[in-house]
Every structure is written in C-alpha cells, then in structure tokens.
Specification:
Blueprint lengths: L4 H6 L9 H17 L3 H14 L3 H13 L3 H14 L4 H13 L3 H14 L4 H23 L34 H12 L6 H15 L5 E4 L6 E5 L6 H11 L8 E3 L10 H14 L4 E3 L7 H7 L1 H8 L2 H11 L5 E4 L3 E4 L11 H5 L12 H7 L1 E2 L5 E3 L6 E3 L1 H11 L3 E4 L8 E4 L4 E4 L13 E7 L6 E5 L20 H18 L1 H6 L5 H8 L2 H18 L6 H9 L1 H9 L1 H7 L10 H7 L5 H15 L5 H26 L2 H25 L7 H7 L55 H11 L1
Parallel strand pairs: 1-5, 2-3, 3-4, 6-10, 7-9, 10-12
Antiparallel strand pairs: 2-13, 5-6, 8-9, 11-12, 13-14
Helix pairs in contact: 2-3, 3-4, 4-5, 4-6, 5-6, 6-7, 7-8, 9-12, 10-12, 10-15, 14-15, 19-22, 19-31, 24-29, 27-28, 27-31, 28-29, 28-30
C-alpha cells in the first residue's frame, strides 16, 4: 500500500523507547481514524503495520472489517479466521467471518458463526436479526434445491399479457405504442429524473422484449466497428442513474452513430437501480446492433438479494417483476470481442492457462454464476502486479498476473483486455504493460468512496484506448431500497399479524384486547403491570416474530419488522425491569379527567388507524402529519397526567422507566419514519416527547432528570474495536403514521384491522 513504509510509520509518532505492544496500539489508533473517515484501504494498510508490530485478534478483526467495506470478502474471511485462531473466545471474530461468508453466499457457514455469536450474546439485537435472516436464507435455498433443476425456467414469458394491462388516464408518464422510439426512451429517462415510476405495463413489455432478444444471443458477442468510427466502453454503474445520464451528457446519447458497451454491474448499491436497468434495456432494444450489455457479478440472484436490487424491485413493482429480472439476467452475454482485437468482460482472466475464445463461446451462461470455472472467472477475477495466480481477495475467482494476460492475448490474437469490477481513484487504471485496462463508471461509489468515474473511447482501426474521467453529480437523497407507495400487498405478513391479534383475543380475552385501543397511557401501563398479561403478550409477540421470519420481504413486512423494535423494548431488553417495577402501577387510578382537560384529541388512535388504511391501500399520506401530531399531543398529555402520579405512588425509578420506554419507542418510530419516507418532517409535537422531563421533586432524590439518564437499550457491542462512524443526519425526514405513539400493541393490531377490512 505504501511506497515508503518508514515514512508512513513516522506519521504515527512512534518512540523507540516504547514496547512493540505500545507501538502497535498507536498504529491501530491511526488506522481507526482512517476507518472512521471512510479511507478503508489506508486503514487496512495501517492495521497491517500494527499486526507486524504485535498481532492480536482485535487487529485481524479490524482489518477484516476494512476488507469487508472494500468488498474483499476472501481477505476478510482469512483475517477473521486468523482472529478466531488467536483467540477462540473473541466473538467479533465469528461475527466478521459470518459477514464475509454471507457476502460470498456461503450461508451455512455464516449461520454456524452467527449461532456462536447469538449464543454468547443472546440480547444483541443486530446479531439475532442477522442470524434469523441467514437461517431463513438457508431454509429457502434448501427448499428451492429440493424442487428445482439446474435452471428450470421460473417465468413463462409467453403468458405475460402486458397489452391487456390497462393504463389509467391519470398516468402522465411515457407510453409505448407501436415500435419502440427514441422519443419514448427520452421521455422515460426524463420521467425517471422526476422520480416518477414507469407504468407496470411498459415495465413488463420491456422485460419480455429484452428476454426474447437476449435468449438468442451468444455467450461471447462479436462487435464490428468500421474504420473511422468511435466506440465507448463503460464500466460498473451500480444503480447511479443520475451519473449514467451524466455520461450521456458528456459523451452523447446512444445512437447508431454513437455506440456503447456497458460492462456489467448495472444494479445494486445505488438507490436507482430500477431506473438504470430500464434505461439500459430500452436503449438495447432501440439500438440492438449499436448498444451492448455484458453480465457482471451483480447480475445474479444472490447479489441482488444482498445488495438491494431485489428489494428495490419489490418496492417499486412486485415480487413477480423481481423474478423476471432474475431470469433475464441469466441470459445476458458474458463478454464481447471488438474487431477481433479487444476482449471485454466484467471480471478478468482465468484460473488456468489455455482458455480459448471458442471455450468461452461454448460456456453455458444460462444459470446462476458458479463458484469456479470460466463463467466464474469472467465475472469475478482481478489483475495483480506479480506473475502467476493467487487466490482472490474477494474469495471467488482468482488474481492473475502479467504473464497470464500475455499468454491469453497471444494465444487468442488479442491486443488487450478491458475489464471493470474494481473502484479506481480516477475511474480507470492500466495494468500489465497495457495488456489489461480497468474502467469503472460509478463516481463516488456508494456515496462515500470519493472516486471518479470513467469511460473509454476507441476509434477503429487503431482501437487505442482513450480515457475520460468525470465526477459524481447531485442526486435525490434517497436511501437504497427506499419504498415507494405502489400497491404491493404482503399477504404472508398480513396473516401473521392477523394471527397475532386473534391469539391476543383468544388468550387474553377479546374484550380486553379490543379495549386496549381505547385506553389512555396510564391504563395501558396498568395492563402490563399484570404479570400474566405481560408474559402472555410477549409470548404471542415472539410467535409473531417466528411467523414473520418465514415471509418474503415486502413493504408491509419491512415496516412491521423494523417497528417491532418498539415491542423489543418491552419484551426483550427491559423485561426484567418491567416485571420488577410495573406491579405497583395496578394501584394507580385512571386519569381520564386530567386527559380531557389537556387535549381534545381523544380520537387520535382512531385517526391513526384510518390513516394506516389510506397508506397501506392507496399510498395516501396527505393526512399523516396531522394524525401523528394529534397522537403525539395525546401522549404528551398522558405523560403530564400519569407520570407524576406514578412517581408519587410507586417511585422515581418506575417513572423514569416509563419515560425512557416512551422515548425509546418514539426513537424507533422516528428512525423508521425517516427511512421510509412517508412525510417531509417529523412533527414538532412529537419532538416534545423526547424532551419531556419529570417534574422536580421537593426533596431531590439521587436521580432527578430522566432524560439525561443513560439509554436503556445498549447499542450493539460488536463494533467496539472498530471506531463507530457518525450516524447520517437526515434533514428531510418522514413519518410513518401507522405506528401508534401510545403503545406497542397498536403495531400489529392496526395491521390486522387493515387485513380484516
């Protein structure tokens, strides 16, 4: 990493009188600073120097994390395994190794390590969630293998009757009638720029037509560029739609006079993968002999599930559209050959010598990428500066040296290889004395890498590569996989929610279950003061979690599982405290008169339920802020009326617990709301809940100000040694009004009402 390691160490201000352990600790602190600032390559280099001074499990685990951030999963796997060898009790080592195996699609191995972590830290929320997710994937894969052939076609494209799908007059987007036109594609990209969705009729139409085209294509596509003509090669774009449009601004839109080849990894990571892929597919259909697409390692089922594309498709369209994309990706060509001289593939060359162009042409590509072989190497391999081959730092494919490139080019009569697959500071890099070039076209990758993007221009007959670098352009502040308001009912999670409510009615009594919806805060807490009620309620909740873990992700599913954090505060993290403190609440009388004098919004709960129905059924959030503001006023009044009574009747610790539970519930709701994007701002009244303070007693107890108290729910302890990065600041947040600010029970009761009616 460093040309002068001595100079790099000098920056750490080491002292010769210090021991190797002390010097290692200093270097680690320096590495932590680089990691915190997002310079993962530099962090890894300094962790390496710290290891050279004094190797520890912590240092190897930290370097493993830096490798994970750089997507070097093979190196991350090796370091995490070394950390475990050095200290078998070091839990973060197992956690890092599980993450690396998950990224590599080795789910059974990941599940074993996650089980080790959960056994050691059963209350670590993040570990439990990842263990559950991994377990679900293992079960799904086992089921699919039991019923599937190698690649049994999952989609019958012949029965997709897209022409029968009506287009409402209210739809203001592009319409594809007759032959596909440049005007349609231009109107579609402009529509996408405004963050408007393509009608599902045209989405299906594009997918059916592109499938019919690609299934007739060979694995290796030959491209002819006439003398004097130019040709552009672009690398990874990873769902960065606005940067894709910037390429067309700089270099001209695709046309028969301005041909392009995009070299894989069109999707995942970026927030606009759907818009990106439909744009690329549309241009391919418009200019089939002047616009080319190669498959990348991210055009695969495993990567799409892990890095966002599948979730984005399901949010913006449906599960069935996600399945269609999987099928289409399996038919993408693996590589291209320009004028028989320039070989273009996404990853790189091969794990053994002697591979010919005919071997590539004869490779079966209509499948998910294998772990080895020609197809695997074309999608995953990377160049290295030294001769020979070494295992890939990614854990898949290989690293190949200059001698490998020379032999391949000479054997096949090729001038040089163009590949992508790796972030480069300037967007491109020359390797192996000009026999291999990397081009990467996603600037400021993942909105944090700070790299430039680039594209290559060739002109026949010389085909000399000329590079253009460019910087990232602004784009809407939309997190990856942000949900849209398209109707996407999740029947599986709906049935789980309905079962939850029916269980409450059966085990706790229907009258009591329904009456919870009308209780004020005091009465809700009094209900939980009953040990039998509390234990039964939490048992039913855990059954709901188990049921929900078997459902495929969807909008409603994500919303419920994220919002279940609220119940976790009651049934998981504060279970002992509630069991100890809450019994005294049974002695407290209701405060209905106080509430009536404080607020007129006694129908706030009903309003929240009504608004949830609008949101779930039609995406209408027009009244969300109003309903949530009223609900928050109701809660504030409940706190004013009830908490002083609790402090007087019970003790200040119990009152503190109630306030902290309320704050924690609202923190979870706010975080969910900001991520979901239903509204533009979090209501001011709801902010007051966070700042609510217990009135000062006449004789001051040892603890007075509950807001200053330490948080009840600890943050995950798995990242202690690697410095925490600052949480992103969200300025234009949003509120999901479906979660009642009053209590945990509304979480699923409201959903059940939706599914009943």
């Amino acid at each position: 990493m460093f040309d002068n390691e001595e100079a790099a160490l000098a920056m750490c201000d080491l002292n010769d009188s210090e021991s190797a352990v002390e010097q290692s600790e200093k270097i680690k602190d320096f590495a932590n600073t680089f990691f915190k600032n997002g310079h993962y390559g530099l962090a890894a280099a300094y962790y390496t120097m710290a290891i050279d001074h004094h190797p520890t499990a912590v240092l190897y685990a930290n370097r493993s994390m830096a490798h994970l951030r750089r997507e070097l999963y093979g190196s991350a796997l090796e370091d995490s395994s070394t950390a475990i060898e050095l200290d078998p009790t070091y839990i973060k080592g197992y956690y890092r190794r599980a993450a690396a195996n998950m990224a590599l699609g080795r789910y059974k191995k990941a599940l074993k390590d996650y089980a080790t972590v959960v056994k050691a830290r059963p209350k670590d929320k993040d570990a439990v969630a990842k263990h559950s997710e991994c377990s679900k994937i293992v079960k799904r894969i086992a089921f699919e293998r039991a019923i599937a052939t190698d690649h049994g076609k999952k989609v019958d494209f012949d029965v997709i009757a897209y022409d029968a799908i009506p287009v409402d007059d209210k739809y203001q987007g592009p319409r594809w009638e007759g032959d596909l036109s440049a005007e349609f594609v231009l109107e579609m990209t402009n529509h996408f720029k405004k963050q408007q969705a393509l009608h599902k009729k045209y989405a299906y139409k594009i997918l059916v037509h592109i499938y019919e085209f690609f299934k007739k294509q060979p694995t290796l596509v030959d491209i002819k560029v006439a003398d004097g003509d130019k040709f552009t090669i672009c690398g990874d774009v990873h769902g960065q739609f606005y940067d894709l449009l910037n390429i067309f601004e700089i270099n001209g839109r695709p046309s028969e006079e301005n041909p392009y080849l995009f070299n894989g990894d069109f999707v995942d990571r970026g927030s606009f993968s759907v818009e990106t892929i439909f744009t690329l597919f549309a241009y391919k259909l418009l200019y089939p002999n002047h616009f080319y697409l190669s498959r990348g390692n991210h055009e695969s089922d495993t990567m799409n599930k892990m890095y966002g594309f599948e979730g984005e498709v399901k949010h913006k369209f449906s599960d069935s559209v996600a399945v269609i994309f999987t099928e289409v990706f399996c038919h993408l060509p693996l590589c291209h050959l320009i004028n028989e001289k320039v070989f273009v593939c996404h990853g790189g060359l091969f794990n053994h010598d002697g591979v010919t162009l005919d071997d590539i042409r004869n490779t079966d590509r209509v499948r998910q990428p294998p772990d080895e072989g020609i197809m695997c190497d074309l999608l995953w391999s990377d160049p290295q500066p030294i001769d020979g081959r070494t295992p890939s730092k990614r854990g898949v494919g290989c690293q190949f040296g200059p001698d490998v490139s020379q032999k391949f080019c000479e054997k096949n009569g090729i001038s040089y290889v163009v590949r992508s697959h790796e972030v480069k500071p300037e967007g491109f890099e020359k390797h192996h004395d000009g026999r291999v070039y990397t081009v990467f076209s996603a600037p400021n990758y993942c909105d944090q890498m700070g790299n430039k993007g680039a594209f290559i221009r060739l002109q026949a007959p010389a085909l000399t590569p000329r590079f253009t670098s460019f910087s990232a352009v602004p784009h809407p502040d939309v997190p990856p996989m942000a949900p849209s308001t398209h109707d996407n009912p999740d029947t599986c999670i709906g049935h789980c929610a309905l079962s939850f409510v029916e269980s409450i009615g059966t085990q706790l009594g229907p009258e009591r279950a329904v009456s919870l919806l009308q209780l004020n805060y005091n009465d809700f807490l009094r209900a939980f003061s009953n040990t039998t009620f509390f234990e039964t309620f939490c048992g039913i909740y855990h059954n709901f979690q188990n049921c929900a873990s078997s459902c495929e992700p969807g909008y409603l599913h994500q919303m419920l599982m994220r919002s279940s954090e609220i119940i976790d505060h009651y049934c998981v993290y504060n279970r002992k405290a509630i069991a100890t403190k809450f019994p005294c609440l049974s002695r407290i009388a209701p405060s209905e008169d106080c509430l009536k004098s404080c607020t007129s919004h006694h129908s706030a709960v009903t309003s929240l339920i009504g608004n949830f129905r609008h949101l779930a059924m039609s995406g209408d959030t027009s009244q969300a802020e109003k309903y949530l503001e009223e609900g928050c006023e109701y809660v504030i009044c409940s706190l004013h009326c009830d908490v002083p009574t609790i402090a007087h009747t019970c003790d200040f610790d119990t009152a503190n617990l109630v306030i902290n539970l309320t704050r924690r519930s609202f923190d979870s709701m706010e975080s969910l709301s900001l991520d979901m994007g239903a509204l533009k701002k979090w209501p001011k009244m709801c902010e007051d809940i966070r700042t609510y303070r217990l009135p000062q007693p006449q004789t001051a107890p040892t603890q007075v100000e509950v807001i200053a108290a330490a948080p009840i729910v600890p943050t995950t302890p798995l990242a202690d040694d690697v410095p925490k990065q600052a949480a992103p600041v969200v300025q234009n947040g949003a509120v999901v009004p479906t979660l009642t600010p009053l209590t945990v029970y509304l979480l699923v009761l409201i959903v059940a009402i939706v599914w009943r009616y």
